[in-house]
Amino acid sequence: MSHFSSPKKPAPAPKKKAAPKRKKAKGDNDDDDEEEDTGKMLIDTSMPPLSDPAHIFQDLISRFPAIKAAASAIGRPLRVATMCSGTESPLLAMDMMARAVRTLYDVPMHVEHVFSCEIEPFKQAYIERNFSPPILFRDIKELGGEKATTAYGAEVPVPGEVDILVAGTSCVDFSNLNNKKKKLAEAGESGQTWRGMLAWVRNHQPIIILLENVCSAPWELMAKEVGECGYDVIQSKFDTKHYYIPHTRQRGYCFAVKKDKAHKTSGLPNQWLEMVKSMRRVPSVTLESFMLKDDDPRVQQVRRDYAVQSEKGRKGRTDWAKCEVRHQLARDGEALGHKRPFTGWEEGGKCKLYDIAWNDWAKTQPDRVVDLLDIMYLRGIKMGLDPTFKTYKWDVSQNVDRNIQGPPGICGCLTPSGDAFLTSRVGPIVGCETLTLQGLPIDDLLLTRETEDNMIDLAGNAMSSTVVGACILSAILTCVSNLKAAPWSSRPSGGVASVAGPPLDLDVQGDDILEHHTLNLGPGGIQGTVGDMLKESKKCARMCMCEGRDVVTERQILVCERCKHTSCVKCAGRPEHYYAMYTSPRTAPHSFINTMKRALATCIHVCGLSRKSLDQLQGDLPAGTERIWDKWAAVVSSVDQEYFTYLDTERGAVWRIVYRGGKSGARLELTITEFHAEWLLFVPPQGELSKFFSQAVARMRVSPDSTDLMAGQWEVIMPTPTTFTLTVQGEGDLVDSHEARIGLRGPFQNTKRYSSLRVTLPSKTPTMACDIAGVYDLMENCDGACGIIYKRRSQDADGDEAMTDRDSSSLYLFLDPTKCGKVSEDPMVFAYTHHRLSSNETRSIIAHLAPGWRPIASNEPLDVKCMVYEGKKLDASCLSVALDSCSVWASPRPVDVAPGCLQPSAVIKCRVTSSPCHATRTPSGNLVLGSETSGVQFTVGPTWCKLDLKKANTTFMSFAWFTQRIALPADVTSWIPSGVRDPFTHSDRCDRCAPSLPEYIWIMKPGSNKEIIPLEEPKDAARYERAVKVAPEPLVVELRRSASTSDDTMDIEMRISTNLSSIFHRAHALLPPTNHALVDASPMFSWRLVEYDPSADLEFTLARKEPVHEPYSIKSNKQDASASQPPNGRFPLRPEQLRSLQWMMDREDTDNHVNEPFIEEEVVESSVRQLGWRLEGKAERRVLVRGGIIADQVGYGKTIVCLALVDHALTRARENKASSSSSTSGSSSSSSGPSDVSRPNLLRDGRLVSKATLILVPGHLMDQWPSEITKFLGEQWNVLQIKTLTNINSLTVAQVMEADIIVCNLRLFSSDKYIRHFSRFAGGRHGIPEKEGRMFDEFYKKKVDYMKVKLQQLINAEITCKELLASIKEDELDQSYITQNVDVRHKHEVYKKGSLSGLQNNDNMEDEDEDEDEDMDDASKKRKRPASKGKAKTKAADKDVGTDP
Length: 1445
Prior knowledge:
With 1445 residues, the chain is α+β, with helices and mostly antiparallel strands. Helix content is 24%, strand content 20%. The longest helix is centred in the C-terminal third of the chain and has 24 residues, at 1334-1357. It is globular and about 120 Å long.
């Protein structure tokens, strides 16, 4: 008798040789000494599920109420400094701790950020954008001095008076993965950063020090050196998975407290260690709970980047031939066979994963990784599990004989160079998700500039917030007396040294002119019946994973005739399915989403679930289940009288409209399919009852004939199942088992299974949603876990059975695995749907077979236990509308522009009752938005308080239910001209809103007489840094509570204001310098406030075709006047060409006043992405441009028309000169002899005044243009050709002055050779920077100024450029721009790293040389990930333009 899966316990795999230690990859972390957790509970699902960082810290604070007394006793803000912490996890942890203390105990706990220190430029930018520290230093090695350099280049005093220092100095020299370790005393990177930190500690003596590093760091020596500075010290090792997060990451920590005999500090380190250990809590959720949804715009953005990269083909880092033998040995030793059922890859060809997989990602992977995926999949099937239905993290940067898979639901150590693959997604873990696995609240972080590599690097080097948070909390609790006795404890708060100075005070205007309106929050109803709505939902449901949230692909959709799975033709193919063309029309999902938002109430009140109502449904309970019922009923009844507010509409194969509860944390969902609409009520898992809350506790199916989506009969789903025995019997043909089909060998080879199963029910069965008896046919080509999926045959009128083809009557029997449970606990189930579930999605199941049971290849009837969770009907309706309307005030007219930029004008104000916002009132009368389950985010007082929009994402969640109904006033959505009251001319610049970039200075690199380094001038950099930090925001959002003292009438108000002057100033500063004539004395400004989709720029749009734009059209010139024929033209122009010629002559005529001005414009945006509103400010400048674009078709004769224009201009210039110079005689040529070249009037502003027309053409047209000139104009004009650098070297000033037309190679001036030649000619000993950017522009500007001196020498000496170059001596080279300031020069090493102001052009991350050693894992050969946010690198062409292409 053979089984479908494993017939017996698989033989143990052969023992593997110890894998060789891989070399240290750039930025790699120490992850090779993870402790074994065999026999330990890694995830405890019986505890309340916690995955949001705010929830986690609230739970942590609730377990240690002593923090209330500690915070009150300290009575002042804690002064914190961070060094090399990268992501600033300590600050995030302390912020979440402080908010939790305020919510739970109504005690203020403030943190003063003294300074940060970070040397990596992209991390500096991340810190500045998200934390805006008072001071952000560049290099920790400088902090031992009195002054140090900031990230902006300013030199400021190094502050002290710090309560807590948290530092994570470099680990590169300590890691076990580094084959070239260095000791602490050596001058390695780790040793230097350690010495810099220690020097600061000696000078400033903080009360508490927390140090983090890899476990292999020399902790005893480090602790000894800290102790010698006057501290009591202890060190220990902690693992992230022991502190709430399912992530195996061990790191060493050192705690030090300043010695103080008065407070007996000697015992504090041991107390701290014991307290940190007592804060342990194993995760209560799996890895998948920390992942983003697959249709999240951030995930879809990464998919799009991989799709673009996949077009370039696979980039293998390791030769497949070097790994093939190793992979073959693994396959043979484990009896895995030689097939590739997971990827479908054939050597030398392409791979094709399942249609749900990230196929574009797979196409970018080397052959080794693709084959590794197949091996890991086969290993899983061999153990009886399908990895794609479970949640495992595979590190595909490791080789096949490494342990790359940990326990299910637990993430292995994340490293900066690792490649994490999530099996349930069948794709990689993206960068921002790696940050969530370090406990960072990514929804409150601005990650707009970081690439995938950047975010993975941030996470790989970050401190886990839960671990460092526990260490900080323990430090505060054990050192309260020391913190109270700090010498600076009596100093007034708010005095942190800051480069920026105090923030600007804004005075909001226009609140008194806002007009009141009523905003409807109630249900708007649906058109037609619910059945009509269901049909519409099918048209816009997601039918392929590539469609994301809001895309309807234009590719053909295929639908499986048996299982009804859908996919587009590009993604379809694996599994094979039984596809046919889908022919029904489809519509955009946005219209359906908007329809449902209007149809449903934004706030719903749930009632009818009181304990009394539940007890009436109790009935006869099975013996021993009374205690379970009591606990279950107590939890469910807590949802009674709860407010549920609209949260989101989720599009998938099934539509889900989600409402969230407040205090209970419950969730209410309306699920919509083609055939039914059903309300489901979910309660968060609670302790030992967690398994009873994995499914909905109540449901209501809406009748298709109804016109009210909230009407229907509710059922409560009983927590205790009813068990009975049914019979299963194999029928039909014997076919290969799934294990045999995919090529497994050993005991699985040639195993069989029956093509059908007959299910027979006993005479007495519990009440079920439908009769599950019948014959179920195997669908071996459809997507099912371990290939186990059956569909019930339908019965025709004659009783014959046939395959069902309608979802309305389809019933499936399939394996429905848990994401992280044991294989023996995975049940087979009966259900109407079988699709893969997304995160937080559940399935309505009719019945469960006994966990672990699988069909066997037997035609004998088998008895199988079956469980059914019955539903009992409630008498009363559970849903009602909680709130019909709220008050909104809007500006009755376009907003006035206040003088200056410190007076925003109110646009909209709204007021809503606090109850649906899940606000908690503190004893002091303030309101705290959030709850014990939804997280604490903001405290609202009686006065207006400005929201920090960078960190307000979760705060706005409290208002999403009504803000999504607010519409902007119609008169502000179009461009509104606006005049600025205060005088503002073209030359003005507001240094408050748009400060100018700091000036450059240049220093000579010590030990070199050729290399120079650009730096920002320190004082000017300090000015720029101050201005950037306090610049007024164009959009301001404020909150306050009403003045009422009654809980029943407590309201929350939100006001949104626009600072138009500020956004105008920013736009005006972006207008480029101009030499054109200005039409107006002042610039023109306009603005608008529009709605937009924040995720529009991130959506995965490759599913649809590129948008078709209307062709650009130009005005006809048929009515224009015609010019005269060119004076020297050898062929007449056609009439249409003469009209074009006249238009060109008019554009160049300085005396012609009929030319329309050209409008230069710049637009600046400022958005409240949480509301989907964007303020746009536009600055315009009208100028007169002497020029234009000839846009006629090919073959029109544009070259001839241009030459005719040149002929007209040169002839007119010659005639004007002849008439104005009565003493001029001789030739009619306008050229000057060599003797006239040195006249002073040949120069204007240091530049040569030439009559010649310059024509820049591509290199391949360099011969054509002179030929055309001769052909059309003859030999009338002197033509000078400049093809190559050699031509420039042979030039004299006289030749340029004699030329009438100069034809020059366009590419010449962008070549590297020309740039170097130019630099030398302009007196530079040091080459001009090769990369484009501000550094190049500044250096080029200085060289152009010095070029004027060389031009005068050319005129005076009457020699060629080459002769002048040869005469230049070393001591004559220009060095005036190089600073001689020794204090600045000695810091050159610091400045090489770059800066926040973007003044240098260094790459943040460079790949190291590849090592071809076959034993080295791919983790040490960092694979290039797609550079998201459009950060592609460009490199100037190295091709010499000295010869024609």
